[in-house]
């Protein structure tokens, strides 16, 4: 048996989102019912609602940056209790049996993780995301939001935060490391904050100097415009690690030229179009071109604890639910600093 709750959904690809109701399953043995307080708007919500990454499941309720409070628990729940502040990120289940799930790398589940939205759950039912008033999630796929983090600025950390934290930690950003963040948007601004807090020397590579003041305020040591060809000459062989957050195709060879020998360029932004690469860009200098996908449940908890310890939240613009469609257009124009967050009380 299910319960209907209010939500904002895209009825079809490219269609404006509209208020509707969706079913939420009855709370099971290991489930928690979460009253959603805030939900971030991620660029991937737009990609999926507009079929940018392939055919979607409609009606679609996007949203995988969810912060709220537990209002009911199943009889077998041990991780959370009613009243706990919790978060839900990009996935709500995985096979739990493959090597990656057993290693705590559920995002790389061999059978495929179950996305928080635009996916089919293990029973073949569509999943609906955080642009809604409530969500039911297995306790093992929820995380605790520390008291030191306000729920509104914590919501974007459930995707944007861990998407940057995971590669920065995996590739050992820290003291003595020169790190570049490509793009200063919803992902990139958290990359700057986290890389700085880890102790790395941080450079922002942005199309123009328009956001330079913001970049330095957020913790960057240097800021350069990639539209200036001299940038690539001046910074050649500079970085140990480059993390690209942009979802548009880049001249990968140009960016790889900025790496030191044995440096790595890690992509977390996902362009809809294929990109090309001259392999000599990685052969010379024994460089690595890599990707990283969100983070595990354990990493997400580590990231939240780290952000609370260092006083890091997302820079947000709080909006009403009836402003979602306008927010989508503004995201596409890079007209947000730096993450839209929906007040779920307005849904």
TrEMBL record:
Pfam families linked: ADH_N (PF08240), ADH_zinc_N (PF00107)
Co-factor requirement: Zn(2+)
SUPFAM superfamilies attached to this UniProt entry: GroES-like (SSF50129), NAD(P)-binding Rossmann-fold domains (SSF51735)
E.C. numbers: 1.1.1.2
Keywords for this protein: Metal-binding, Oxidoreductase, Zinc
Annotated InterPro entries: ADH-like_C, ADH-like_N, ADH_Zn_CS, CAD-like, ER, GroES-like_sf, NAD(P)-bd_dom_sf
Enzymatic reactions: a primary alcohol + NADP(+) = an aldehyde + NADPH + H(+)
Gene3D superfamilies on file: Medium-chain alcohol dehydrogenases, catalytic domain, NAD(P)-binding Rossmann-like Domain
Enzyme class: oxidoreductase
All copies of domain Enoyl reductase (ER), residue ranges: 12-342
Gene Ontology MF annotations: oxidoreductase activity
Similarity field: Belongs to the zinc-containing alcohol dehydrogenase family.
The protein's name in its UniProt record: alcohol dehydrogenase (NADP(+))
Organism: Streptomyces ficellus
């Amino acid at each position: 048996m299910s319960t209907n709750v209010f939500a904002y959904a895209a009825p079809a690809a490219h269609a404006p989102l509209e208020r509707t109701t969706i079913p939420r399953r009855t709370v099971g043995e290991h489930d928690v019912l979460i009253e959603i307080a805030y939900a971030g708007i991620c660029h991937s919500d737009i990609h999926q609602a507009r079929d940018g990454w392939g055919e979607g499941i409609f009606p679609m309720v996007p949203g995988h940056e969810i912060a709220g409070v537990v209002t009911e628990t199943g009889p077998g729940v041990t991780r959370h209790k009613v009243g706990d502040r919790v978060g839900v990120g990009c996935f709500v289940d995985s096979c739990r049996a493959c090597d990656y799930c057993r290693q705590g790398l559920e995002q790389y589940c061999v059978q495929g993780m179950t996305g928080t939205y635009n996916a089919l759950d293990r029973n073949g039912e569509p999943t609906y995301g955080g642009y809604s008033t409530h969500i039911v999630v297995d306790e093992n796929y929820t995380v605790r939001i520390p008291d030191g983090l306000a729920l509104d600025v914590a919501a974007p950390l459930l995707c944007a935060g861990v998407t940057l934290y995971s590669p920065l930690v995996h590739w050992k950003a820290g003291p003595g490391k020169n790190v570049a963040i490509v793009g200063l948007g919803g992902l990139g601004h958290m990359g700057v904050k986290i890389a700085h807090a880890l102790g790395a020397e941080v450079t922002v590579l942005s199309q123009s100097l328009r956001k330079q003041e913001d970049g330095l305020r957020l913790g960057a040591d240097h800021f350069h415009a990639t539209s200036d060809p001299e940038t690539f000459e001046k910074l050649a062989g500079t970085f140990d690690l480059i993390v690209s957050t942009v979802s548009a195709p880049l001249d990968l060879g140009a960016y790889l030229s900025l790496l030191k020998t044995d440096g790595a360029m890690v992509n977390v932004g996902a362009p809809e179009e294929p990109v090309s690469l001259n392999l000599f860009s990685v052969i010379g200098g024994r460089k690595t071109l890599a990707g990283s996908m969100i983070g595990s449940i354990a990493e997400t908890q580590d990231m939240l604890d780290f952000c609370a310890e260092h006083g890091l939240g997302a820079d947000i613009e709080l909006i009403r639910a009836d402003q979602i469609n306008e927010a989508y257009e503004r995201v596409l124009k890079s007209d947000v600093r730096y993450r839209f967050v929906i007040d779920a009380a307005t849904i």
